[in-house]
Design a protein that fits this description.
- The structure holds 2 protein chains of 2 kinds.
- Chain A is α/β, with parallel strands linked by helices.
- Chain A is 39% helix and 21% strand.
- Chain A is built from 12 helices and 10 strands.
- In chain A, the strands form 2 sheets. Chain A has a 6-stranded mixed sheet, with helices on both faces. A 4-stranded antiparallel sheet of chain A has the order 2-1-4-5.
- The radius of gyration of chain A is 20 Å and the shape is globular.
- Chain B is α/β, with parallel strands linked by helices.
- Chain B has one domain: 3-Layer(aba) Sandwich (Rossmann fold), CATH 3.40.50.
- In chain B, the strands form 2 sheets. A 6-stranded mixed sheet of chain B has the order 6-7-8-3-9-10. A 4-stranded antiparallel sheet of chain B has the order 2-1-4-5, with no helix packed on it.
- In chain B, helix 3 packs across helix 4 and helix 3 packs parallel to helix 5.
- Classes of the chains: A alpha/beta, B alpha/beta.
- Chains A and B meet through helix 7, helix 11 and helix 12 of A and helix 5, helix 6, helix 7, helix 10 and helix 11 of B.
């Protein structure tokens, strides 16, 4: 059974008639790493909010269709109940860190879930370890760099040991190197712990290497859904997503009549292809 | 002209961010300031409109020392768009937000109306004219913040991370718009991490690391320099990485259009 199952989901925020989501159908299997992208205003953030019940519990509006996450009907659950299954990492880590030390921030989730002291201790240590932030545990979150803050935000979500982690443009405020590191942390959680990842990203050049499934939303609906080499074809250009430059270049070369066999997705694959093309 | 001389700056908590920055920006230049998180990029540009004053050294805007004038006076010359739009948006509608500065500057209402309308069209915001900025998406709020500064037409534009939250189409429009501003003679300084955006715009690149300038040159020079990129936590553009791995291809290629041309020419030449 898929861990996320969405059927005919439509939603309009209160006060507008515009449908932010328009008949979405989507299934995600346990352990998948899904990258969700699409033009701004396409409904990416709204879709994320549906997965833990923030829509429509907190952001109200008119919702039709069905959302099942971890076998639970999200519309019948409270957001706090869903938070144990779905961890949510926002674009701006300052929006979710608020304690005076990193350790307290990471402990906040398990404390509220009512775990005994020892279990909280164990979870905090574990979450700090897997995100590589043990050395920061006594620091104040507000004095850390953006990349460090985002790691702490991920740790604070992980401490609740969710089965799914939803990240809404987690690298927007980070430099490229920190972005790469954050996505590597996420990829490791997926690979080693089997956490299902639902990652909203514009920076596909960084996200692509970790994922074998790209979902493109356009005007509130799923426009494309498949492996990167398929999605980075012509249609993705038309929808206007930021196809990484290597697949884009080879796509153009193909149009120029050059013998490109498979569209390379990463720089490494691009180098191999270009060597072959030049030496042929 | 923006002149920065031996600029040192520390925040009141003692955190020393800038350690002697020297920089000359001519009128009409197009500049990208890049570097790792915490390098001092935002701190540097906040000295351009006097929001922050040097502890040592000085900053001159069109020959006026920022210490000897007010932020209000400098604001007319230097428009600063913050990284996080929520730090500068406060009105109830997009229209009011974009009209705010013009009203403060005392423009007649018909001029205000016309300029606001034009600005909203340019940045693809017309449908949201009566919306609350806080109901918009992150990318849309960012464009409202941009519009609210661009609308008063300052001589020097400083954009802190203009591409955050923008999709590819919006970036494309933004790039065209920035280039258009620049060809009209406006100085454009943008702080950005977005190497692919820089690879397409090709401004002069100032590389900042740990409060010092470690590189200053064309986008082609800086973004193909592996050592500099590593020091400033930049990832090189995909095309630069691709080209540097293959012998016999010309250096300094960083964008996909030049790459396409060069590869086609190379193949034609060898046949």
């Amino acid at each position: 059974m898929p861990i996320i199952e969405i059927k005919d989901l439509s939603f309009s925020y209160s006060g507008t008639s515009r449908r932010s989501l328009n008949s979405i159908n989507l299934e995600v299997e346990k352990g998948e790493f899904v990258v969700v992208t699409g033009p701004s205003g396409c409904g990416k953030t709204t879709l994320c909010r549906c997965l833990n019940g923030l829509v429509p519990n907190f952001y109200t509006g008119e919702l039709t269709g069905e959302i099942s996450v971890c076998g639970l009907d999200v519309q019948k659950q409270t957001t706090s109940a869903m938070s144990q299954h779905v961890g949510f990492v926002f674009q701006d880590p300052e929006n979710q860190l608020f304690c005076l030390t990193v350790e307290r921030d990471v402990a906040f989730g398990p404390e509220n879930m009512g775990f005994p002291r020892e279990e909280i201790r164990r979870r905090v240590d574990w979450a700090l370890k897997v995100t590589g932030t043990e050395a920061l545990k006594d620091r104040a979150p507000y004095e850390l760099s953006g990349g460090q803050q985002q790691r702490i935000a991920i740790a604070s979500v992980l401490a609740m040991q969710p089965k799914i982690i939803v990240l809404d443009e987690p690298t927007s405020f980070l430099d490229p190197k920190s972005s790469q590191e954050i996505l590597e942390v996420v990829a490791r959680l997926n690979r080693e712990l089997g956490v299902t990842v639902f990652l909203v990203e514009h920076r596909l050049d960084l996200a692509t290497r970790h994922s074998n499934r790209i979902v493109v939303l356009d005007k509130g609906a799923v426009a494309l859904d498949g492996p990167p080499e398929e999605v980075y074809g012509e249609q993705a250009q038309l929808i206007g997503i930021g196809v990484p430059k290597v697949p884009l270049l080879f796509h153009m070369l193909k149009q120029d009549g050059i013998d490109v066999r498979e569209t390379p997705v990463t720089v490494e694959e691009g180098i191999k292809q270009l060597r072959r093309i030049i030496s042929d | 002209m923006i002149v920065v001389e031996d600029l040192h700056f520390a925040y009141p908590n003692g955190n020393q961010v800038l350690h002697g920055v020297d920089l000359n920006i001519q009128d009409g230049e197009f500049i990208a300031i890049m570097g790792e998180n915490g390098a001092g990029k935002t701190t540097l540009v906040k000295t351009f409109n006097g929001l922050l004053k040097p502890n040592q050294g000085r900053v001159l805007i069109d020959n006026i020392d920022t210490k000897k004038t007010s932020v209000a006076a400098l604001a007319r010359e230097v428009g600063l768009v913050f990284q996080n739009p929520d730090h500068q948006l406060f009105c109830e509608t997009v229209r009011d937000e974009v009209a705010y500065s013009l009203r403060n500057f005392g423009y007649p209402s018909d001029v205000i109306e016309k300029r606001v309308k034009g600005m909203l069209e340019t940045l693809d915001l017309t449908p949201y004219v009566d919306s609350s900025p806080f109901m918009l998406s992150g990318g849309e709020r960012k464009r409202v913040a941009l519009a609210s500064v661009l609308v008063w037409n300052p001589k020097h534009m400083v954009l802190d991370e203009p591409t955050i939250g923008q999709d590819y189409q919006q970036k494309d429009r933004l790039r065209n718009f920035i280039i258009q501003l620049n060809t009209q003679g406006k100085t454009v300084v943008m702080v950005t991490h977005d190497v692919e955006f820089v690879a397409e715009c090709k401004p002069r690149v100032i590389l900042l690391s740990q409060g010092k300038i470690i590189g200053d040159g064309t986008a082609e020079e800086i973004l193909t320099d592996k050592d500099l990129s590593t020091r400033a936590s930049l990832l090189q553009p995909q095309i630069a990485l691709l080209f540097s791995a293959i012998e016999g291809l010309p250096r300094g290629i960083i964008d996909v259009y030049s790459a396409r041309l060069v590869i086609n020419n190379t193949l034609r030449g060898s046949k």
